[in-house]
Design a protein that fits this description.
This protein is α+β, with helices and mostly antiparallel strands. The strands form ten sheets. It has an eight-stranded mixed sheet, covered by helices on one side. A three-stranded antiparallel sheet has the order 1-6-7. It has a two-stranded antiparallel ribbon with strand order 2-5. α19 runs antiparallel to α20.
Length: 784
C-alpha cells in the first residue's frame, strides 16, 4: 500500500502530498547507503483514527457538501466545544457556557505531532519543504551519550536506521518530543546522541465561561458590587441593612427564640400585660433581641417568668424559689392572698411593678439572698404577716424616731414611707457592698425626710447616693472635698448645696449646682452656651446690692455659668434669651451702657417722676423697687395697668385723694381698691359695673363676682367665673370702721372655702349727722 493512501485529513497548514512524490520515495529507499549509522526519516502515520474521513480543500475550508464549516484552524463547527471545535452563538443562544472560539492545548499538541510526522516523511524522501526547514531546531552532538530516537520509534533498516544506505553528507535533523523520547539498553554504547531544542509552542487560546453574553467571572463581580451599592443606599436612606443569610443564622443562634418555645406560632393572650409589658412585646423581644456574648443572664432568667405569666404551656414554678410575697400565704395560690394585687410599689432598686407582678417575679427568683427584697416588697403591698428582718436598721431615723415630713414626701422619686419600710424589712447587709452603717447608708434619706435628730452631712456620696443621684457633685470632676464646706452661698452652706445636688431628680437643673460649686470655690467650667459676665467683663459697681432677691454678685455667677439650655422647656423656659432675662438685672446692678428701651413698650416707673415712697415694701410677693424694674423692662403694653395698680399699692401719690371729714357709703361709688396677696392682686369696686376680681402673676384674670349691693355694711358679689364642681365664684367685702384710717384701704383677702372669697375694707369714721329718712332714694339705690 502506498504511503499517500495513509494520509488523511490533517489540521495543519502543510500541503497535500501527491502520488508522484510517493513513488520517488519508494525508489530512493531501495538504494544502499554508504553510512548505515544515520537514522532515516519515518513515514507519518494517519493523523486521525476515524474510519470516516472527509477530503478537505485547505485553501477554501469547504466540506464535501460545499459548506464552509471549518474555522481558521481547520476545526469543524460540529466538534465538541471543549474538544477543539466552534460552537456558534446560535447553538447556545444566551445560555451560560463556553465562548465561541476555543483552542485547547490538546489540539495544538496534536498539530505539533502531525508536523513532526510530516518532517519524518520528507526526510525519508530526501527533501524538506522550505516552510519546515525554516522552523528546524538546532541539533547539538554530544559524544559518549546514549542514542536517543525521536517520536518514540526505533528506526528500522528500511527507514534509514542501522544498515541504512543514506548519504553521509545529508544532515538529518529530527524533531523530538521530550515526553516521547526513548533510550536504548543502558549497556549500549554509542558515539553520539541528539539533543533537540523544541520550537516555540503556538499561542493557546483561553476557555472563557459566559452568561448572557458576558464573561461569568465579570458578571459575578458586577453583581457583587451592585448588591453592595444597593445595601448602602437602603441603609442610608431607609435605615435598611441587607444582612447575608449567614448572619441571619448567627442571629438566630444568639436570640432566645419564641416566648413559648420553638415551634409555637401563637400566644394564648398576646394583649395580656405581664411585668410591665404585653405578652406580644415579650415574645418580640425574646425572638429578636440578640444576646450579648459576655452577658451572664440566661434566657431562662430573662423570659421564664414572663412566659409563665403569659400562660405558655409546660412551665412550672421552681421548688427553690422565693415563693409568695405574703409569707403566710399558701404557695400553691396565685394572687388571691395579696390585699391589693394591682397596687404599684417600688423596691429599693427603684424598679416599679404591680404587686401581682412582684409576686410573679418572686415565684421564679431562685437566689436566696434576693428573697429578703421580696419580703420587703410584700410589706409595701400590705402583707401584714411579713416579719421584719432581725438585722434591719429599724427605721431611717436614729433611735426609731418618726420622720417629720409627710409619708408621701419623695426622695429620689420614692416616698419617705417606703424608705422607712426598706430600713425595717431589709437587712443592713443587703445592697450594701461598702458595709456602711445604718446611719451612713440612710444619711441622705434621713435629711430629705426631716428626721428630728441628724448627724453631720456625710461628705462622701454613699451607696444609695451613687445609685440614685441625677446630678454630679458640686465640685466638677468628682472632687471629694469642697474648699470651704461652711461658706454661705445663696443663704445655704456649700455642704448643704452638695446635699441638695445629691437629692435633685431633675437633670435640667444640674447646671445650677455646677454654678453654686463655682461660688463655693470649685474649679468648675461654664456651660457651652453661657451668657457671660453680667457687666461684660467690667467689675460690678455694687456686688452686694440685692435685685430680685439676690445679690449682684450672685447674678454675675449665674450669667457666667448658665445659658438658655438651663432649665430648658418648650412651654416655659427659665432663660428665653440672655438679653431678655438679664438686661433689667444688669441695669439695676449699675452696669454701664444698659438702659430701658422706650421702643419696646416699657411701662415706666411706678410713681412717674416721683421716687418710690418705700422701695422695700412687699407687694405681690416682690419689693416695690423690683416691681418698678419689671415695669421699666416690660415689653407687653397690656400689662401696664397691672403696674399702675402696683404703684398704688406701693404708696405712689394718687390724683384721687380722699378729703372727706367722715365716711359715707356713697364715697365708694365708682371707686376701685387693690390688694396684693402672694402672687395675686385683688381688685374691688362698687356701684354700677362694680366687680371683685383676682389678677394672677401670669396675667390670668378670674372674675370673683359682680356687685350686687349692700347687706348692712357688707357688699356682696356673685355670678363669677366657673369653678368646676364648686359652681361659679362669689365673694363679699366687709366695710369696717377704723378711727386711725385716713382713706379706704383693703387690709386682707382670704378664701375660707373653695372659690368663695372674703375681703375687709377699712374706712375712716362714719358720718353721724346723716338723716337717712330724708335722703334722696335715688342716691341710695346703688347701695341695695
Amino acid at each position: 500500500m502506498k504511503k499517500s493512501d495513509e494520509l488523511t485529513e490533517g489540521k495543519s497548514s502543510i500541503a497535500a502530498v501527491n502520488d508522484k512524490d510517493t513513488d520517488e520515495d519508494d525508489n530512493t529507499s531501495k538504494q544502499p547507503s554508504n553510512d548505515d549509522k544515520k537514522p532515516a526519516a519515518a513515514s507519518p502515520p494517519p493523523l486521525t483514527s476515524s474510519s470516516k474521513s472527509t477530503t478537505t480543500n485547505h485553501n477554501n475550508n469547504i466540506d464535501n457538501d460545499g459548506n464552509e464549516s471549518h474555522d481558521t484552524f481547520g476545526f469543524h463547527i460540529n466538534d465538541e466545544p471543549r474538544r477543539g471545535g466552534v460552537k456558534s452563538d446560535v447553538d447556545h443562544g444566551l445560555e451560560c457556557g463556553i465562548s465561541a472560539i476555543t483552542t485547547p492545548h490538546g489540539i495544538m499538541e496534536a498539530m505539533q505531532n502531525a508536523n513532526r510526522r510530516a518532517l519524518d516523511y520528507d526526510r525519508e524522501r530526501g527533501e524538506a519543504p522550505p516552510a519546515v526547514q525554516t522552523r528546524r531546531p538546532s541539533i547539538e552532538s554530544i559524544p559518549g551519550a546514549h542514542r536517543v530516537y525521536p517520536s518514540n520509534r526505533e528506526p528500522s533498516p528500511e527507514r534509514g536506521g542501522e544498515g541504512s544506505t543514506a548519504n553521509d553528507t545529508e544532515q538529518v535533523q529530527p524533531t523530538m518530543n521530550a515526553h516521547s523520547q526513548h533510550l536504548e539498553q543502558s549497556d549500549q554504547v554509542v558515539a553520539e546522541a541528539y539533543t533537540v531544542e523544541e520550537p516555540p509552542s503556538p499561542p493557546v487560546a483561553t476557555v472563557i465561561d459566559t452568561c448572557f453574553g458576558i464573561e461569568r467571572k465579570r458578571l459575578l463581580i458586577i453583581a457583587s458590587v451592585g448588591l453592595g451599592v444597593i445595601s448602602i443606599v437602603l441603609g442610608c436612606v431607609f435605615g435598611i441593612i441587607v444582612v447575608p443569610s449567614r448572619n441571619n443564622r448567627q442571629q438566630e443562634e444568639l436570640t432566645c427564640g419564641p416566648l413559648c418555645g420553638h415551634g409555637t406560632t401563637k400566644l394564648p393572650n398576646p394583649n395580656k400585660k405581664v411585668l410591665g409589658a404585653t405578652c406580644e412585646s415579650w415574645d418580640t423581644n425574646s425572638t429578636n433581641l440578640v444576646i450579648v456574648s459576655d452577658d451572664a443572664t440566661s434566657c431562662a432568667d430573662r423570659y421564664t417568668a414572663a412566659a409563665y405569666g403569659c400562660a405558655c404551656p409546660g412551665i412550672e414554678i421552681p421548688s427553690d424559689s422565693c415563693g409568695m410575697l405574703c409569707s403566710s400565704s399558701d404557695s400553691s395560690s396565685d394572687t388571691s392572698s395579696l390585699p391589693d394585687p394591682d397596687r404599684v410599689v417600688k423596691d429599693i432598686h427603684n424598679q416599679e411593678l404591680s404587686c401581682k407582678d412582684w409576686q410573679l417575679k418572686s415565684h421564679f427568683e431562685t437566689d436566696s439572698q434576693e428573697c429578703v427584697n421580696y419580703n420587703a416588697v410584700g410589706a409595701l403591698c400590705g402583707c401584714t404577716g411579713n416579719e421584719m428582718h432581725p438585722d434591719s436598721c429599724d427605721g431611717i431615723c436614729a433611735n426609731g424616731q418618726d420622720f417629720l415630713h409627710s409619708p408621701g414626701h419623695s426622695i429620689w422619686n420614692t416616698a419617705c414611707e417606703s424608705w422607712d419600710m426598706y430600713s425595717r424589712y431589709l437587712p443592713s447587709w443587703y445592697n450594701n457592698d461598702k458595709n456602711e452603717t445604718c446611719e451612713e447608708y440612710y444619711s441622705d434619706v434621713a435629711y430629705g425626710c426631716a428626721c428630728p435628730v441628724l448627724s453631720d452631712i456625710e461628705p462622701e456620696c454613699g451607696t444609695l447616693c451613687q445609685q440614685r443621684r441625677t446630678c454630679g457633685p458640686i465640685c466638677e470632676g468628682g472632687e471629694s472635698e469642697i474648699p470651704d464646706p461652711d461658706l454661705i452661698v445663696r443663704r445655704e452652706t456649700c455642704q448643704a448645696w452638695e446635699l441638695h445636688s445629691r437629692l435633685e431628680v431633675h437633670e435640667m437643673v444640674c447646671p445650677f449646682y455646677n454654678m453654686t460649686g463655682a461660688q463655693c470655690g470649685c474649679k468648675n467650667k461654664p456651660v457651652s452656651d453661657a451668657c457671660g459676665p453680667l457687666c461684660g467683663g467690667e467689675s460690678l459697681p455694687n456686688p452686694q446690692k440685692e435685685v430680685y432677691g439676690q445679690t449682684c454678685e450672685s447674678w454675675d455667677y449665674m450669667t457666667t455659668y448658665l445659658g438658655p439650655s438651663y432649665g430648658k422647656s418648650e412651654q416655659n423656659p427659665i432663660i428665653k434669651s440672655c438679653e431678655e432675662h438679664f438686661s433689667a438685672i444688669s441695669y439695676a446692678c449699675g452696669c454701664s451702657d444698659i438702659e430701658p428701651s422706650s421702643d419696646e413698650g416699657g411701662c415706666g416707673t411706678l410713681c412717674g417722676a416721683i421716687p418710690l415712697p418705700d422701695p422695700t415694701k412687699i407687694v405681690n410677693a416682690r419689693t416695690c423697687q423690683d416691681l418698678e424694674l419689671l415695669s421699666l423692662f416690660e415689653t407687653d403694653s397690656k400689662q401696664c395697668t397691672r403696674y399702675e395698680i402696683f404703684g398704688a399699692l406701693c404708696g405712689c401719690p394718687s390724683a384721687d385723694v380722699y378729703e372727706e371729714d367722715c365716711f359715707k357709703l356713697e364715697h365708694l361709688q365708682n371707686k376701685t381698691y387693690h390688694f396684693g396677696a402672694g402672687g395675686s392682686i385683688y381688685s374691688v369696686s362698687f356701684g354700677d359695673g362694680g366687680y371683685f376680681a383676682q389678677l394672677q402673676s401670669n396675667g390670668d384674670l378670674f372674675m370673683i363676682g359682680l356687685f350686687n349691693g349692700f347687706d348692712d355694711d357688707i357688699a356682696t358679689y356673685g355670678g363669677g367665673a366657673p369653678c368646676g364642681l364648686h359652681g361659679p365664684r362669689s365673694g363679699s367685702v366687709a366695710i369696717v370702721e377704723d378711727d386711725f384710717i385716713e382713706s379706704p384701704e383693703i387690709k386682707f383677702v382670704i378664701e375660707p372655702s373653695i372659690c368663695v372669697y372674703q375681703a375687709e375694707l377699712k374706712v375712716p369714721k362714719f358720718c353721724q349727722d346723716v338723716d337717712e329718712s330724708k335722703a334722696d332714694d335715688e342716691d341710695l339705690i346703688w347701695q341695695r
